[in-house]
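User: Please fill in residues for this 169-position structure.
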């Protein structure tokens, strides 16, 4: 397997995702998608359905959902191409180009996050979220938070670190 595109921009995140459990990778991909879609909100039901599937552990996207996301992505890519060729470099046209590009990349992040291989899907979702304009810092925090265990590991030797703590009032 080739190295993910994310390795060029954020090799540390690739390693974090490589070491993560598939469920943690899925949570990281979901977080990246939410960040990207937060920057470029979409109201299409297929986007909500995709996020819902991604949020359910063990759920997989069916061919209908993936096909609908591909169609939406084509529409957004065409809108971006149209905006890119229509403008003469005015601030408004540059804004429209950036908005259409970001929206397409945000939907692409979701589409790729629903892919089969959890490592590749998570890396691709984070990469596309970055392309959609998500802050690298926000993505780093989201990914590292998603792969953190829900509860800290008990200390070696089985000692209870809270045994000497004062009771709460």
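Assistant: Residues filled in for all 169 positions:
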């Amino acid at each position: 397997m080739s190295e993910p595109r994310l390795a060029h921009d954020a090799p540390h995140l690739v390693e974090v995702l490589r070491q993560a459990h598939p469920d943690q990778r899925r949570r990281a991909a979901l977080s990246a998608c939410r960040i990207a879609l937060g920057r470029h909100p979409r109201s299409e039901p297929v986007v909500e359905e995709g996020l819902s599937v991604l949020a359910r552990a063990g759920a997989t996207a069916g061919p209908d959902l993936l096909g609908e996301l591909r169609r939406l992505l084509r529409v957004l890519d065409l809108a971006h191409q149209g905006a890119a060729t229509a403008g003469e470099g005015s601030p408004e046209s540059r804004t429209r180009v950036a908005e259409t590009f970001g929206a397409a990349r945000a939907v692409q992040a979701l589409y790729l996050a629903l892919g089969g291989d959890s490592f590749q899907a998570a890396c691709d979702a984070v990469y596309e979220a970055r392309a959609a304009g998500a802050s690298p810092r926000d993505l780093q925090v989201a990914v590292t938070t998603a792969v953190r265990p829900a509860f800290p590991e008990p200390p070696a030797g089985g000692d209870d670190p809270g045994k000497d703590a004062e009771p709460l009032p």
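For context: Residues 46 and 68 are 7 Å apart (CA to CA).
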